[in-house]
Amino acid sequence: MTRPPQPTPAVDDADVDRIVRRDYDAGLVDEILALIAATEVREKTRVVLACLKVANGNLDKLRGELSNAGGYYREILGEAEYPLATKRWFRIESLSDDEVRAIYEKDWRQYAEWLGRPNLVPD
Q1: Integer angstrom CA distances of residue 88 from 5, 85, 93, 112
Q2: How many of the other CB atoms lie within 10 Å of CB of 54?
Q3: What is the CB neighbour count within 10 angstroms for residue 2?
C-alpha cells in the first residue's frame, strides 16, 4: 500500500525574515537574525521557520528551539509542520489512506495559515 505523501513547505530566507519581523518587536530583529545566522542545521530555512512557529513570538523559547535544532530538527519539524500526524505516528499504519490524507491536509492547512498570517507586532 502506498501512503499519501506528506506535503513539504517550499520556503526561503525571505520567509524567515518576514516571519521574524512579523512575530517579534523591531528592537529584537537584529538579535534574532544573528541567532539564526549562527544556527547550523540541515534544511536550515525550513527548520528555522519551524523553530519560529513553535516559539510563537517568545524569544526565550526561540533561543531554546534554535539551540536544540542541530540535534532535534526532525522533532521540531514534526511539531511545527505535522502536529496531528506526529501524534498519530505510531499507529498511522493502521489508518486508511483517506484518514492519513485528511490528517496531512489538516496539518498542511494549519502550517500554511501560520505562514501567511498577517503581522502580530504593530509596525
Answers
A1: 15, 5, 9, 21
A2: 18
A3: 5
pLDDT beyond 80 at 34: yes
Q: Dump pLDDT digits (tens) for 67-88.
A: 999 899 999 999 999 999 888 8
Q: What does the alpha-carbon distance between residue 37 and residue 77 come to, in Å, rounded to a whole number?
A: 19
Provide the pLDDT for residue 6. Answer: 81
**How far is C-alpha 4 from the chain's CA centre?**
20
| pTM of the shown model | 0.88
Is there a contact between 32 and 20 (Cβ–Cβ < 8 Å)?
A: yes
H-state helical runs in the chain: 13-23, 29-38, 44-55, 59-81, 83-87, 97-116
